[in-house]
Design brief:
mainly alpha; 15 helices; 77% helix; elongated
Length: 472
């Protein structure tokens, strides 16, 4: 304990010496800074606070400020040349190019996603087309199930009755078409030969200057082509058998999917909603029923339009004595589900059958009947029956049918237009829903803005003051 006072005395002396050295260095730094500008006055030693008055470990405020000034980099002299600072690389790129780059990589991501999705769909094309066909059939039959349930039938019984009646009617129509074709096949072949001979004589007497040698050459070339391509024709026949097996498989899948969609469609939709993120779930839940109403309106309207086309064109073909009028009417009904292209194909088939069986005049009359009915369909029936709910621009119809046909053949062409119509409905609803949500969560207007957005009185109504009373 006797050594402690001596040790404390030495520590105080060392701290005092350290403080004096710091003051000396600070004075020297301030003197160097004063040479480049104004001289900074240095306090005399007698006015400075005694080092012993400052606690150990504390730095005076004035000393900290002077140290910060000493640490700064001195300004360059006036005669030094000015050097421009390099701009930020992001700021050096034009704004339009930055926007294009931002949009480009997002479009590339979307394109890659769509490419992978199309690859997956093409790998399971049969299943996808079968499910889409089931959706279309369900949209057509679901109102019948709802009507039977309103009459008091249980859900299972109403579903079974509707599905059985629908499938039986479709099967009877297909059987009737096959029966008509097989029953009239011999008569049709005789009429085809007679029609070809009549067409040959008409071409010889026509103003086109066609000679019999040219006709015989064409017939010989066709015969040679068929003879030399027997292997390809056989391969095509085998491929046709494979296609028939795939069609039957797809029909069975579509039937089972239709049964489950009719019976459990609402619970399936609720399960799908659980897969959607919680923030987007209200918008998707509102868009789903609207998309289903659009699909139902499209299917029922298309069925009605196709039925009217088949009835009137079939009656015209029947009155003109064209063979197989009923099968041709059924083909017209089925091809009507392919917008634009289906009407052209079915009409051309009816004209060709009339040409090779009944002659040129009957073919021209059939062509007039087909054109007249299709014009009435395009300008009267479709706008009146389908309405604005499923209205799609003709350019969108053409492009969607072409893209669907390239991706999935006839099935893709059939489902392309309803897919575009449903997508249009969903996108429109989600856009409106997003705008409403933005307005709902926006801060309330104040001041002059509140006056701008305030509801204006109806024309002819008396003005009101701020208190809601009429001004007199």
């Amino acid at each position: 304990m006797s050594m402690l006072p001596g040790w404390l005395g030495r520590l105080g002396a060392e701290l005092t010496e350290l403080g004096e050295r710091l003051e000396q260095r600070r004075a020297e730094a301030e003197g160097v800074e004063g040479e480049g500008g104004e001289a900074t006055p240095i306090e005399p030693p007698e006015t400075a606070a005694a080092p012993s008055a400052v606690p150990v470990g504390a730095v005076p405020a004035e000393a900290g400020r002077r140290g910060a000034v000493a640490d700064r980099v001195p300004l360059p002299p006036a005669y030094a040349p000015s050097v421009a600072a390099r701009p930020d690389p992001v700021a050096a790129i034009p704004w339009g190019m930055r926007v294009a780059a931002e949009a480009s990589w997002r479009l590339l991501v979307l394109a890659g996603t769509l490419y992978v999705l199309m690859k997956v769909i093409s790998a399971v094309q049969l299943v996808v087309l079968a499910f889409v066909a089931a959706l279309l059939v369900t949209a057509m039959l679901q109102p019948t199930v709802a009507r039977l349930r309103r009459y008091g039938l249980p859900r299972g019984l109403a579903t079974a009755v509707t599905a059985i009646l629908g499938f039986v009617i479709m099967g009877l129509v297909g059987w009737f078409v096959v029966w008509q074709v097989m029953d009239n096949l011999d008569t049709l072949s005789d009429k085809v030969r007679a029609g070809i001979d009549e067409l040959k004589h008409w071409l010889l007497d026509s103003p086109f200057h066609v000679t019999e040698q040219q006709i015989n050459d064409v017939a010989k070339n066709l015969s040679d082509t068929i003879g030399t391509n027997t292997e390809q024709i056989t391969t095509a026949g085998l491929q046709g058998v494979t296609v028939m097996v795939e069609v039957l498989t797809g029909m069975l899948l579509a039937m089972f999917s239709t049964l489950f969609l009719l019976y459990d469609g609402k619970r399936i939709w609720h399960w799908v909603l659980k897969l959607v993120p919680a923030q987007a779930r209200p918008g998707v839940a509102g868009a789903g029923p609207r998309a289903w109403r659009t699909l139902t309106a499209y299917v029922r309207g298309t069925v009605l339009v196709a039925l009217i086309d088949a009835i009137f064109i079939g009656l015209g073909i029947w009155f003109l004595k064209v063979p197989m009028a009923v099968p041709l009417a059924v083909f017209i009904f089925l091809f009507a589900f392919i917008p634009l292209v289906g009407a052209v194909i079915s009409g051309a088939l009816a004209v060709v059958v009339a040409l090779v069986t009944e002659g040129v005049f009957t073919a021209l009359m059939v062509l007039l009947v087909v054109l007249a009915v299709q014009q009435i369909e395009g300008h009267v029936l479709q706008p009146f029956i389908l309405g604005r709910a499923v209205r799609v621009h003709p350019l969108a119809v053409v492009l969607s049918v072409a893209a669907g046909g390239m991706v999935a053949g006839i099935g893709g062409a059939v489902v392309a237009v309803p897919l575009v119509a449903v997508t249009n409905t969903v996108v429109g609803y989600l856009r409106s829903y997003g705008q409403e949500e933005a307005l709902r969560h926006a801060p309330s207007p104040r001041g002059a803005t509140a006056i701008d957005v305030a509801p204006t009185p109806a024309p002819g109504s008396p003005p009101e003051d701020s208190g809601g009373k009429e001004t007199r």
